[in-house]
Amino acid sequence: MKIYIPLDSAAKAVGADDVADAILLEANTRGLDIEVIRNGTRGMIWLEPLVEIETESGRVGYGIVDVADVPALLDGKLESLGVVEDLDWMKGQTRLTFQRCGITDPLSLTDYEAHGGLTGLRNAIAMTPAGIVEEVTNSGLRGRGGAGFPTGIKWNTVLGAQADQKYIVCNADEGDSGTFADRMIMEGDPFTLIEGMIIAGLAVEATQGYVYLRSEYPDAIDIMEKAVVLARAAGILGADVLGSGRAFDMEIRVGAGAYVCGEETSLLNSLEGKRGVVRAKPPLPALEGFLGKPTVVNNVISLATVPVVMEKGAAHYADFGLGRSKGTMPIQIAGNVKFGGLYETAFGLPLGDLIDKIAGGTLSGRPVKAVQVGGPLGAYMPRSKFDTPFAYEEFDGQGGLIGHAGVVVFDDSTDMLGMARFAMEFCAVESCGKCTPCRIGAVRGVETIDRIGKGDTDAIELLEDLCETMKDGSLCALGGFTPFPVMSALQNFPDDFATKKEAAE
Amino acid sequence: MSDVQTIEIMQGILARHAKQEGPLLPILHSVQAEYGFIPVDVVQIIADHLNITRAEVHGVISFYHDFRDAPAGKHIIKICRAEACQSVGANALSDRALEKLGVEWGGTTANSSVTIEAVYCLGLCACGPAAMVDGKVVGRVDGAKLDKLLAEAGA
Q1: What is the band of A117 on the pLDDT scale with cuts at 50, 70, 90?
Q2: Sorting pLDDT into bands at 50, 70 and 90, what band is A217?
Q3: What is the mean pLDDT of chain A?
Q4: Regarding beta strands B136-138 and A380-382, do their DSSP bridges make them parallel or antiparallel, or are they unpaired?
Q5: Which residue among A267, A326, B15, B149 is buried most deeply as judged by most CB within 10 Å?
Q6: B124 contacts in A (CB within 8 Å)?
């Protein structure tokens, strides 16, 4: 009997390791012949630990499983959720990037290949670098890290640059609250990221790659490091990638707890062993990146999506989506929600459907007050904007951004002035210090919001002015985007700023 | 000046990272894994090895939240303060932890058993509030679970 128990951090954080141990112990006592497979997560985090037992009709799920449920589980007496693939949550999705996540053993190359892995790389090997770049360009894939810049265009710049050495750098420093797609894919299907990086290497003629991985994800670091060793041993990485005669190798590099290193130029400085301060652009990293050489800097999900584009073709991928937002987006539903987890679907789903239908509303059962999309630098959207389709341009039109597509839900007990203050405080703590609007603006921002909190209405105009300066004058997105949560809180929830005043008076 | 043992340990660490490009961060991680912090004695050794100034090494150490210049408590507990965890009660949890320990963020209890740190996102946003104890992740943390974690850590 095959039993699947996720090894994903989120599953482990709620007891998956203990459940796995208990199942092995119980099976041993009973003399049962079982095989425990530690898979990635399906993304239904609210059901974790989610245990699956392989049957003739498919993999039957049980969740939330507690250690105390194990005897009943092995007796066949625990109530099941039914076949996991048939659950509404799974059926409603279009899983391209996450096609294998939760299904396979993340560190089994046999599993990986049996589920379509390496097909994209083999197709890429048969193509010219320009051909690969063209395919990725035609897929319409845009940077999944936040800015949404077309991946193919970035690659083309690096391909066109002349240099003795080029690099692929994977930005795995996703530190945005509410986003865990990067972590989930690295823990649940690490070879897809490795494959994507190799394809990128072939496309731009780079032979060395780095994954800059945040230290807050120790489990992801562990799995990625093991996956690199396995890929090298299998001849997927190294001097002769799958016998193609072309070289590509990579290293997992661990960050040191600085949020700003998620910004690509800070990341490059950090990778070089310097303070993670931002660099002014130009020069673009595509021309002068790591150690001054042409460098592709892509987010985890962008690179992890490349194999499926090369496997199924640009047209297949581009067929999904809305307008210029092509393909699918792994949306991460988090915070105060009934059903939190990762939901991959084509662009274009209205925000409200996501919150009310898929996420099931709040966990607390109270009304939804605000939704922050795109991490700590994303805007707070009120219910009145819930008909906004989930896509780059559409969100932009509503004063928001989709960023990494992290969606954090807050109920009506949330104090939006407090959230605005937190955004400024976060910026003050994490500012790299290079530019004045961010370094000093954030500190003054906290003070100004405190003045508003004490009832000083004149300070509102000052806050607006300060946000304008930070937005226009900061070197990178940290200072430049902090005004998004602050101003959206102020504009969409003015009562939270005004009631304070009345209370003070 | 550095003693013989320190020099020996550092030679081992530096040799391990000899082939890396831009190796300062990996070196500092190794030093901290060895000592639990970055001893002031090793700064000059690293600077000499990489042919950079002592100030540059210090600048890097002080820039990153992970590196410490003094030993931490026996256990390091990190509590997520980011928005997703805040939406399900992380602030109350943080207040409770700091009060029980009688320290501020980054502080170590008088008996040196626990150092408490703020962390901004462990990627456990759908099962918050989240914490990490000595590198092990914990989700759905409520008051009772927190008290148990603190007690187990000897606070």
Answers
A1: very high
A2: very high
A3: 95
A4: unpaired
A5: A267
A6: 9-10, 13, 180
Q: Note the pLDDT of residue A400.
A: 85
| B residues 63-82 lying closer than 8 A (beta carbon) to A | 63-67, 82
Examine the predicted complex and report whether its ipTM is higher than 0.95.
yes
Give the residue extent of every domain in chain A: 2-87, 109-319, 321-411, 416-496
Inter-chain touch A182–B88, beta carbons under 8 Å? no
Residue A132 CB: number of other CB atoms within 10 A? 26
pLDDT at A328 over 60: yes
- Which among B26, B84, B127 has CB closest to A13? B127
Q: How far is CA A318 from CA A306, A494, B2, B68, in A?
A: 12, 41, 61, 48
Say if residues A111 and A188 touch (Cβ distance below 8 Å).
Answer: no
Residue A12 has pLDDT above 60, yes or no: yes
- How far CA A229 is from CA of A167, A252, A301, in Å, comes to 19, 11, 21
Residues A3, A60: contact at Cβ < 8 Å?
no
Put simply, the answer to whether B29 touches A254 (Cβ < 8 Å) is yes
Tell me which of 1.20.1440.230, 1.10.3720.10, 1.10.10.10, 3.90.1150.10 is the CATH number of domain A416-496.
Answer: 1.20.1440.230
Q: Is A70 helix (H, G, I), strand (E, B) or coil?
A: helix
How many Å apart are CA B133 and CA B149, to the nearest integer?
8
Residues B53-73 as b or e (16 or more Cβ within 10 Å = b): eeebbeebbebbbbbbeeebb
The answer to whether the CB of B93 falls within 8 A of the CB of B80 is: no
- Residues A361-384 have a mean pLDDT of 94
What does the pLDDT read at residue A53? 98
pLDDT of A375: 87
If DSSP codes are grouped into helix, strand and coil, which group holds residue A369?
Answer: strand
Q: Which residues contact A63 (CB under 8 A, 6 or more apart)?
A: A44, A47, A48, A49, A50, A51, A81
d(CA A291, CA A227): 26
* Residue A323: per-residue pLDDT: 87
Closest-CA residue to A138 (of A312, A18, A344): A312
Whether the upstream peptide bond of residue A49 has omega within 30° of 0, thus cis, is yes
CA separation for the pair A58, A88 (Å, rounded) = 16
Interatomic CA distance for residues A285 and A157, integer angstroms = 10
Instruction: Please give the torsion angle defined by the CA atoms of residues A65, A69, A71 and A76, in that order, rounded to the nearest 10 degrees.
Output: -70
CATH number attached to the domain at A109-319: 3.40.50.11540
The CATH number for A321-411, chosen from 3.10.20.600, 3.40.47.10, 3.90.1150.10, 1.10.10.10, is 3.10.20.600
Instruction: Measure in Å the smallest separation between the Cα of A31 and chain B Cα atoms.
Output: 31
pLDDT reported for residue A447: 98
Lowest mean pLDDT among A23-27, A198-202, A260-264, B2-6: B2-6
